[in-house]
Amino acid sequence: MMKLQWLIPLLPLLSALLVQLFAAxxxxxxxxLSVALGTLTVIVAAYQLVTYIGSDASPSWHSLGTMWxxxxxxxxxxxxxxxVAGISLIVHIYSIRYMTEEPGYPRFFLxxxxxxASILLMVAAGDLVTLLIAWHxxxxxxxxxxxxxTESWPSQRYAFWTFITYRLGDLPLVLAAVLLYQTYGAIxxxxxxxxIAADPNATIMGLPTAITAAFLVALSAFAKSAQFPLHTWLxxxxxxxxxxxxxxxxxxxxxxxFIINRxxxxxxxSDGVLHxxxxxxxxxxxxxxxxxxxxxDIKKSLGYSTMGQMGFMVMExxxxxxxxxxxxxxxxxxxKGTMFLGSGxxxxxxxxxxxxxxxxxxxxxxxxxxxxIKLPWLFIGLATLVVPLFILVIAHWFVxxxxxxxxxxxxxxxxxxxxxxxxxxxxxxxxxxNPIRMxxxxxxxxxxxxxxxxxxxxxxxxxxxxxxxxxxxxxxxAGIDKLTFDGLVFLLALIVVAGWFSxxxxxxxxxxxxxxxxxxxxxxxxxxxxxxxxxxxxxRMAHWLLDASKRFNVWMRWY
Amino acid sequence: MSFFLMLLAGFFLPLFPLSMVFNxxxxxxxxxxxxxxxxxxxxxxxxxxxAWAGLPLDSGFFVGWAVLTAIFYAWRLLTVRVLxxxxxxxxxxxxxxxxxxxxxxxANSELHSFALWMSVAPALxxxxxxxxxxxxxxxxxxxxxxxxxxxxxxxxxxxxxxxxAMALPVxxxxxxxxxLLAHASTFFALPILLTWLLWSWAGTRLLNGFVFGPRAExxxxxxxxTTTWGFIGLxxxxxxxxxxxxxx
Lengths: 559, 248
Description:
The structure holds two protein chains of two kinds. Chain A is mainly alpha-helical.
């Protein structure tokens, strides 16, 4: 089984080598070679996952017999290998025709293969050095993939933004690895994690190693997963080829969620860092969502949507729901990848005919024309507020009765409830011949989604982290004292209700606020439309550094 | 005595402003072979001097000075456009970091290998500079952009060497940086990482100045297939030797 595991990162590497060697002889047919080996990689990854589940095996570690260079096969690496290989194969197949007119066709497949190999090595790395190499390689490959069009300055500019942010993310992980090695004297994950569990309070130069390393890993994850304020590269990378956007949004940007999960045995001893993850994730989710809603460029809007999702993913880690973050990143990856790969044909279709359906759903969603309310007020109130809560509570209680003892789970439930309420509240205006039937259908859909997510999520959690004690420890580490928690929940509920209420008052035909907050709204809109000036600030700082460097060099006569 | 030896070593494992001597010497040397020899031999003299002064070094002052020199030259690298000068400043920035290892290790073998591995990329840059000078009269970033389409083989070699200069995996300098960090205190780790980041920034600026951009209108010939494979073979050999050295 272990020998086969080596094939997973090696097959794409072999493919890259063959593409380079046969590019001149085979021309564009070389892409089929890449796809064939990609298919083989998926088959091996699927076989490994099925074997792992079927044999009821425990995590295993395999080294080349050298100081570094090893693989760690556990549920996380098994499932991620299959996901990455699968998405990469789809992108490969899609690229055969999509990239055919582009210059550097074989180079594109070479880079795609190297990128796939790097990600597959990252997810299965068994020691710190192998992980660092793969982690760095991802940034390098992404730089060249985004800059595939070597003649386009915008492509190069945004490829550089991505690269430098990724480098910012590489270096804290290097430092974390060094600190862990200096303290625990091991680089292979099984030994390292065992030693951390045995002595979680070890220090280095007066600093608690586990907490410091977790903090550095978190910083690394923030850069790779576009967390605020290291997010500016993500929405602007659309200058790269669409298949790269798909691969990036479906896979590469999820690296942050993966690395936090890989270092879960470190994070479990770092409660403060988990709280930081929650706050940064929350801010990112909010900023990403706000910026997504205000974009007039669909691709940038998708970019900010990904940023928001990455914020949720990190936030879930901050709540101790590590497995949920992996579930989220897989689901989001498949969803967003499909959107990007389908965007070309959507645009093509829209050019042929407008495709406007002119049905009640379109009138409601796009033209924002709602029907006069036909349902009783009390019914709507009950359906929108109570029913989602009831469904969520019953579903979660059914799979895990102790679920409600975990603070992180309560917060997630709260978010689920708010989302459900928002959906129902927004759709009850929808024009329909039979409003009761429509509302029942909406509730049924909601119930199915919640039940599906709850059961799958629970099964996934048991698969990823089979030890119940460890799962509970993660939730416990993410917890805060009861009084603060209750206060925060109350405050959050208050903010949500106030938001709803003010949105209702402001959206009436004659707003009761009048033009009182006009200036504030305008200022806020300017800030949002300039994306909070974050990119401008970086640009200004970079120019200042470059100018100063040039002046110094001239003064020093370039010696 | 040891103070003066360390001060003397400051010319060879360069400490600013003593570092200006090396950079001036490199600029005045025109023969590429002599330049490469200078790059390989210069820091080794510094290591011998440090060993003579007594290892591990007991001078926080010199180590602090070296770290500041490394960051300073990495920052200056951002706006350097002459390729050989770029290689010289990169070497200055990288060699200065050797002082950190010298402060932590009693033996000088690791110090010699660190200086050697950090000299590889600057030496390769000298060869690239020579190839560019032969074709365009100068190896000046921004003079002829868009070589990726016009001269793909030369561009590939430039890309590989610049990646090595940025100390990225799996080039020797990457492992040398890991070794360095393993010997550095947490206090010095941050400036080391900052230096590393600046190298990456400077490297991408260099690539933009040569490789990327609209296709260059040039009649210059690309590298021959044999030369390209020879160069790539050399780099692969260096990488493999280093991997064996580092225990892979």
